[in-house]
Design brief:
This protein has 4 helices and no strands. With about 160 residues, the chain is an all-alpha fold. The termini are far apart.
């Protein structure tokens, strides 16, 4: 039996390489593509209130994404992981780090300026966050395809005419 820190691949690590990208993808779709745009269409939501909610929600989302990335990194350290999957996963982690360390702090400064009444809120900075999420979505779908392809074999259908003789 291998232990948790072993470099041997395990069912847990293989499962993590499928489940974690799926959860991460769902998180981005749910928050970035559904919640964020709809928030400002709800009755009674003002710009300051929407920005405050968004800062809280995206801050928590980024912590969850970082936790997923750390566990995914653990799953990458196991032997038997395809080079293509490792490359995609490392790219995902790099984009996440840029999103959290560079883009989010700039957006927080803009939010502070808007909330203080110094800025009207018009900015292209959100486009960088959207682009990062777009890259993550493409990368996560790619990671899922690579991981599932490695563990699922599609077998040809057996026809009724090819029964045992």
């Amino acid at each position: 039996m291998t232990h948790f820190f072993s470099t041997d691949d395990s069912r847990l690590a293989a499962s993590a390489r499928i489940i974690l990208p799926a959860v991460w993808l769902g998180l981005i779709i749910g928050i970035s593509l559904i919640e964020a745009p709809l928030k400002f269409t709800a009755p009674g939501i003002t710009i300051p209130l929407g920005l405050g909610i968004g800062r809280l929600v995206f801050g928590v989302m980024n912590w969850v994404e970082l936790a997923i990335a750390v566990i995914l990194l653990w799953a990458l350290l196991k032997s038997g992981v395809d080079l293509a999957y490792r490359g995609v996963a490392c790219g995902l982690i790099a984009v996440l780090i840029i999103k959290v360390i560079v883009i989010r702090p700039l957006l927080n400064q803009r939010t502070d300026a808007v909330l203080a009444g110094v800025d009207d809120g018009g900015s292209a900075l959100h486009l960088f966050y959207i682009a990062a999420d777009g890259l993550l979505i493409v990368g996560l779908v790619t990671a899922l395809v690579l991981a599932v392809h490695r563990w699922v074999t599609i077998r040809p259908a057996v026809s009724a005419n090819s029964t045992a003789e």
